[in-house]
Amino acid sequence: MTTAAAVPVTARGLRRMLLPLALAQFICSFAGSNMNVMINDISHDLNTTVQGVQVCITLFLLVMAALMIPCGKLTDRWGRKRCFMIGLVVYGVGAVLSAVSPGLGVLILGNSILEGVGTALLIPPVYILTTMLFHDMKSRARAFGVVSGMGGIGAATGPLIGGAITTGLSWRVAFIFQALIIVIIVVLARNVVDPVPADPSRPFDIVGAILSAVGLVVLVGGIMAADQNLALMVVLMVAGALVLAGFFVWIRRRERAGKEVLLSTSLFRNRTSNLALVTQNVQWAVLMGTSFVVSAYLQVVRHYDAIQTGVIFTAATVGILLSSLAAGRLARRYRQRTLILVGFVVTIVGIILLLALVKGRPGAWYFAPGLFLIGTGLGVMLTPSVNVVQSAFPENLQGEISGLSRSVSNLGSSLGTALAGTILVAAWPTPAGPTASPCSCWRSSA
Q1: Phi and psi of 27, rounded to 5°?
Q2: Which residues of 184-220 are buried (b: 16+ CB within 10 A; e: fewer)?
Q3: Which residue from 216, 227, 248 is spatially nearest to 116, judged by alpha carbons?
Q4: pLDDT tens-digit profile of 278-330?
Q5: Tens of pLDDT along 111-162?
């Protein structure tokens, strides 16, 4: 088997390979948040409803949830770079189709299905390749700092860039922007070298893939139903948990029989990795939940438009960027566990400061200190938590752990948004006038 030693090890070569991986994480995170500010324009242009566009957004999340683990496993059979390139092409086709969609059905096909499948194919290779190309903990921390930082920046700037494009041009141009970035990534990705050859003969657990996909879809569907029907939410989440329990029984039986499984149970025997996975889930729940609450408050209560809301979130973007860029330096000086704990503390202080400063004060600048600390805290802990998880396992398990890690993060994003939306729907009465209701704003940010 070819080892990572066959990969060019010059610093310049590694940087050239890291750039397309980081840009891929950026565009996927950007796409996950920029559509939030387009929902009214899309519904008017396509002659549909806000709820119709929300179905499109929710289906995107469900497709990712269903396919992230199986696609992570497919990297072993097809190769990491090949999965990455296929994912980019599928995503790009979906973005172009979304841009020219004449109706909601085509938008769902382009955005929900094709972009969802493309994201599930290309994101696991981003983390697998980063782990394999950067061997020591410090350089890997620096690399994951760039990848995680670009992901955080994409999520934070999505409303700003998307709002500016939608307001100044059209929501369709935002999808063209995504397609152009994909073209750039494809060109840059020619420099990426897969350190381990693909193994087409490696078995693929089809039954396990179906069970995991169904379980995650039902579970995420239950989370997304939180603002509509709590009883339905509970039923779906319990059903999803039961299907996932059946999935674990299935893979355990296959392991005992010495057969290839979709997800090795040994991944859950590493206590450090388990804690880091929980940390990732909480991080993304906090990031997306806080982002939604502040965004909904600004638009519903203070009546800010998309661009104004995006500008205010620049403080969080700066915090994420600075802390992520410092990831390598921090990894050299402090333990990963320490960084995660400090990140949590800084984030909590930022939330408290945000609540304390904003209450009763009309100025937008009062949002900046709290959002900056929240962004800084999240940036400090995002990188080490990913690094700990990926570094805890050998090359032959990278496909599995990457798919699992991304699924856990997606569940955190869905949970954070759903909880925030449920709380706001319960706390705020629906306005009688033309102002969008909190429920509508939540639907637009799922």
Answers
A1: -70, -35
A2: ebbebbeebbbbbebeeeeeebeebbbbbbbbbbbbb
A3: 216
A4: 888 888 788 777 777 777 677 667 777 667 777 777 788 788 778 877 766 77
A5: 989 999 999 999 889 988 888 887 766 777 778 778 877 877 777 677 778 7
Helices 230-256 and 206-224 pack at an angle, to 10 degrees, of 160
Q: What is the mean pLDDT of residues 201-207?
A: 85
Tokens 């025997």 sit on residue: 269
What count of other Cβ atoms lies within 10 Å of the Cβ of residue 425? 20
pTM: 0.76
Choose among 174, 152, 408, 405: nearest CA to 290: 152
Contacts of 156 (CB under 8 A, 6+ apart): 33, 291, 313, 314, 316, 317, 320, 375
In a 10 Å sphere around its CB, with 0-12 CB exposed, 13-18 middle and 19+ buried, how is residue 155 labelled?
A: buried
Beta carbons of 86 and 121 less than 8 angstroms apart: yes
Could you tell me how many residues make up the chain?
446
